Amino acid sequence: MLDFTLYQTVCVFLNRYVLFMAKQKFTLQQIQSAIYQVRYENKTAKQVCRELGITEATFSNWKKLQEIKDLREEVARLKALPVTRGDLEYPDQEEMDLLKTVSDIIVDIILREDEKDKENMSEQKIQKRDGS
Description:
By secondary structure, the protein is mainly alpha-helical. 78% of the residues lie in helices and 0% in strands. It has helices at 4-16, 18-23, 28-40, 45-52, 56-80, 93-130. Helix 1 runs antiparallel to helix 5 (56-80) and helix 3 (28-40) packs across helix 5 (56-80). The termini are far apart.
């Protein structure tokens, strides 16, 4: 069975960004289209941001939200897998440890990116305040 802490972590991230999602003027399809353009159509984030009239920080938040949504869907998909004692084999301890390690790495990456964004925003505020 999948470790429940990953699901809890994803829920915490989603709750954290609920206010951001409520204030926006773009539809989910527009946001997903923008992310798709950067990932698969070889456009830069800067180009897409200019086209939509948004900041790169906003686009970064959109990407994080999409990644969180994808993680949540994956957790739901894994939880929906049938678990019976008949024909199916349970993952051994090594596989469970690997799944936990991968989920921990994903959460660490998201947390580090969030911290970097906060640091960049505070540096930009200091630069604006100092008039640099």
